[in-house]
Design a protein that fits this description.
Blueprint: E1 7-11, H1 18-29, H2 40-44, E2 53-57, H3 66-83, H4 93-108, E3 112-117, H5 121-124, H6 130-149, E4 154-161, E5 178-179, H7 194-199, H8 210-217, H9 230-239, H10 245-248, H11 253-261, E6 272-275, H12 276-279, E7 282-283, E8 286-287, H13 289-295, E9 300-308, E10 311-317, H14 321-334, H15 339-355, H16 358-370, H17 374-379, H18 387-399, E11 403-410, E12 413-421, E13 424-433, H19 440-447, E14 460-469, E15 474-482
Parallel strand pairs: 1-4, 1-5, 2-3, 3-4, 13-14
Antiparallel strand pairs: 6-10, 7-8, 9-10, 11-12, 12-13, 14-15
Helix pairs in contact: 3-4, 4-6, 14-18, 15-16
Length: about 475
């Protein structure tokens, strides 16, 4: 990578090792050979040259104003100036950074390496206040303009973040900035591969089901080799139990609010199609839900196809069980279900599904919707949205960690939702009506013979037709038949 280019950008979700990767680059360019003894770099890096390195980071703390951003820049630039024995002759961050780069080149005889970590965090922390987020974006744009003007003094530039803001709004002028986010050869540049788990972490695997580890934490893909979330794996090996470690370190409040404002149909999370252009459509003034979900790590790429010359389309879905379950549990709260109601219902349903107790399943689901406060409907953008009922139903089942398939294809059409629990399969069809249901949901399941695909020795197939009423704001029809 260093031999092929000079300016790079990489987007990866939080806690994926971006900072550690920049630390590694810093030590390489500074010539810390002793840290790489016995490693590939020891024999393949030119240790005869040491470069001055400026490593900027915006990952710590929450910057809520232009003054906070300026103070952060001042603190970091002051540390560099003191470390290199250079005076601070200019008052503004832009001028000081430009002067610092030029003087380091002149004094050392080597061009400067600039590493920028979590460049976008000051913007992301303020997305709920668009005016403030724009000001923070404009302040960060100054760094990019300096890098553009100081190109003759720079040996290498690497910028990381969770999201890639549009080139026009932030990276304007950095024409030589290569985005390697979706480069297959760099798909595994952060995160752990299967090979890493089998070799480096082999001593940690005793007593753990490796296939379960893969289902829970692997699956992140950027058009190349899939990787595990490193934060999850390290905590799993330490605590020896499966949990949503990565998800719980960041509350996706903004994400849930954003999806509800856009009336996002949560079953679509299992399978979304997006163009390459849409995945990169991210800015303060226009954030597409699919771009937000993908860049933040809640969705990953499962398939890619070219439908025409240079027209690439991606099929997205959950990377793993952790994200699927934890994200939908959070969405339940955003879609109106109180956390207490959700937890109580989720504790009962698995046993009812396993026992085939459809009456008990009906009662739990009815209580789930009854638990949504009437005030929530008055104040939510989801009020009156027919997809709200199915979204809650889907997210509820998925939050349980159930094996759920949305619009599962058969030779007779598509089933709204299929759920498998051991040797039991439940096929659901949904309708939203104003009046008492007329049984059309169940009739559709029966008429189209959806159960045929699932029949097998020892397998019980149950058809469930569910009707929601917008007037009652609950399930008013729950009809069951054996498939």
């Amino acid at each position: 990578m260093v031999a092929r280019g000079t300016h790079y950008f990489l987007s990866r979700p939080r806690r994926f090792g971006k900072s550690l990767f920049l630390d590694t680059l810093k030590e390489l360019f500074e010539g810390s050979r002793e840290l790489f003894t016995g490693l590939h770099a020891e024999q393949h890096w030119d240790w005869s040259v040491r470069y001055p390195v400026l490593r900027l980071s915006f990952g710590s703390g929450i910057l809520k104003s232009p003054e906070d951003l300026a103070a952060s820049m001042h603190e970091q630039l002051l540390a560099f100036e003191r470390a290199f024995g250079l005076p601070a002759e200019l008052p503004d961050a832009r001028g000081r950074l430009k002067q610092l780069i030029g003087k380091l080149h002149d004094s050392t005889g080597q061009r400067v390496v600039v590493l920028v970590d979590e460049y976008d965090k000051p913007i992301l922390d303020n997305l709920t206040e668009p005016d403030r987020a724009r000001v923070m974006r404009d302040g960060l744009r100054d760094i990019c303009s300096v890098l553009k003007d100081a190109d003759a003094h720079l040996r290498f530039v690497f910028i990381t973040g969770v999201s890639k803001f549009s080139k026009v709004s932030l990276f304007s002028g950095l024409n030589n900035l290569r985005d390697i986010t979706l480069s297959p050869e760099y798909s595994a540049i952060c995160g752990y591969t299967d090979h890493d788990v089998d070799s480096v972490f082999a001593p940690e695997l005793d007593g753990l089901d490796q296939e379960q580890i893969r289902r829970w934490y692997n699956g992140y893909n950027w058009l190349g080799e899939a990787v595990y979330n490193p934060f999850d794996l390290l905590l799993l090996f330490q605590k020896r139990r499966f949990a949503s470690y990565w998800f719980e370190t960041g509350t996706p409040t903004f994400l849930v609010d954003h999806l509800s404002r856009h009336r996002f149909y949560t079953p679509d999370l299992a399978r979304l199609t997006s163009s390459e252009e849409l995945l990169g459509a991210f800015d303060v003034d226009g954030i597409e839900p699919v771009a937000l979900l993908w860049q933040a790590g809640y969705l990953t790429i499962h398939e890619v196809r070219e439908i025409g010359d240079g027209q690439w389309f991606y099929t997205l879905g959950y990377p793993n069980r952790e994200v699927e379950s934890a994200l939908n549990a959070s969405l339940l709260a955003g879609y109106g279900v109180p956390r207490t109601t959700s937890s109580i219902a989720r504790s009962r349903l698995p046993d009812l599904l396993a026992a085939g107790d459809t009456a008990g399943i009906r009662d739990v689901l009815h209580a789930l919707f009854a638990g949504i406060p009437h005030d929530w409907y008055r104040n939510s953008p989801l009020a009156g949205y027919e997809g709200h009922y199915v979204s809650v139903f889907y997210s509820y089942l998925t939050a349980l960690g159930q094996e759920v398939r949305v619009e599962d294809a058969t030779n007779k059409g598509r089933i709204d939702l299929a759920l498998r629990q051991g040797q039991r399969v439940y096929l659901f069809e949904f309708k939203v009506l104003e009046q008492v249901p007329d049984g059309r949901a169940l009739e559709q399941l029966q008429a189209r013979g959806y159960a045929e695909k699932y029949r097998a020795p020892g397998v019980t197939v149950t058809l469930v037709g569910i009707t929601f009423s917008r007037e009652e704001r609950n399930i008013t029809g729950f009809e069951v038949a054996e498939g």
